[in-house]
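Comment thread on ticket #2218

A.B. wrote:
> Attaching the input chain for the structure job we discussed in standup.
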Amino acid sequence: MNSWAVAAIAFVCMFSAAMGAMLAARYLPAQHVSKETQDAVKLGVGMIAAMASLILGLMTASVKGAFDTTDRDVHTYATYIRALDSTLRHYGPEAIPARALLDGYSRAVRAETWDEAGLPQPSEDASSEVLMARLDSVLHGLAPATDEQRQMRSEALPASTRWSPPAGRCWRRA
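C.D. wrote:
> Ran it. Output below, let me know if you need it in another format.
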């Protein structure tokens, strides 16, 4: 149900309850509409409002914490991908196929996770898993010829295996 429908239903319910209470107040005995009763009702409503605001505040803080954690995880994940790309760029032309696979993997993950408008879109497509498996194979198949290439390969292999896609998302890691 969309938010406008929920808002309309809530408004109709509250408005109907208020009108019903005003109608019922005409037929209540005098002790139920006295000043002391009104003060007790005001106190009760105030306590309910305070509890509702406290709960809403705690819910907002919880959602913000989850959002911040996911944001940090996504940025860390993107940093790992950029670091691996940089390492492969420094490796040399032999790593061009691995960089192409990494680029394809990044595009596939984005397509599996978000739609064209940038909104979350869970997907069951597993093309990113296949690309990551192929990337791992290509990285393991690199044959370094120089000490610098050996160092770049030794940096690239752990970087490709320590990735931990952000929690709560439909990101994949083969």
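A.B. wrote:
> Thanks. Noting for the ticket: DSSP finds five helices and no strands in the chain.
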